[in-house]
Design brief:
Length: about 425
Amino acid sequence: MTYLYAYYLQVLFIVLIVVNHLWEIYLNRRQLGTLQRSLNEVPEEFSSQITLEDHGKAIRYASARLNVGLFHLVVDAAILFYWFPFRGAESLFHALPAWGMHRDVLFLLSFGLITFLLGLPWSLYSTFILEERFGFNRTDLKTFVLDRVKGLTLSLIVALPLLYAVIAIFNSLGDWWWLVSFALFTLVQFLMVWIYPIWIAPLFNKFESLQSEELRRDIDSLVEKAGFKSQGVFVMDASKRSSHGNAYFTGFGKNKRIVFFDTLLKDLRGKEILAILAHELGHLKLKHVLKSLVTSIALSFLGFYLMHVLSKSPWFYAGHFIKAISPGVLLFLFLQALPIYTFWITPLTNLISRKREFEADAYAAKETRAEDLISGLLNLYQKNSSPVVADRLYSGFYFSHPPALDRVRKLKSFET
């Protein structure tokens, strides 16, 4: 019976790898077709603000990224086949010295390093060829290398003690290991969010207080009206890496702060900045951030419980082409194999996300002006070369934000 369970799971797993990737290739090709058909005409709703030249650049930029993505999908499927059906993961595990829990940690760290190295060519191509071709890249090789070194070092500092702790808990607490591990994992997540603005983000970027007193007063008034407090308003030197613009909230509690990319402040007017900030405040005011956090914790709880249930089932390991049974292999399977099964939940989570984006837009339109948010968003679309057209099936599956046309039409219904 164990053999049959393992065999059926192997078949299901292989089928899902193939079907998932074929579906993504199909969606990418649909999106490419939609973009190419729109190349020579700006949609009427955007023709007054987006030039045909900028529209064409956005189409070419998005198409280039999609073409790279198509190749990446094929390579990604091949890599998955190597790790699982071709038993690359099992070979890696057995190639390491049998040093008890050290073997599990070495296995996970080795896999992480290999994944990093495999992803490096994509990062180099994206940064120094694709982004450079369209005029967005401002990263030099020194900054690129330092970012990767800092990221790897930080990952090691966090991951190494956490992995040892989880594996030690697994080996010593019997049937309750999953609950204690879940609690530890959640605590570390909160800790990382709390220290990120103060200790981690400054390792990669410089942050300075917003200099414009008028804009600062308007921002403080908007934030206070929403019933929130922050540690301050900061400008990040994003321009040293890219010309793309953005803004975000980070941290929680006393470490909460508002961050603007310097590129965004350069490209947008004051009222547009306030409208975009109001949109972000809308997510906080409407408890979208809290709801997402609760959902994440609940899914993490479910994931650890499922690990506990399957941890002593040989058919589960064999079903993913691994005979070795250990906590390190279990963690590997849940990190790498689980996304294959949850892939088809993607459109549902993105549907919820788009609904919340509409709600945050409505809040921003109420607290500022809908026309300012429309203008600000179109400026960002234009400066970031984000296309304002999208295939319905592609956007429905992938987009966490509403397509530009839907978003603008909805916002125009709020105009006074």
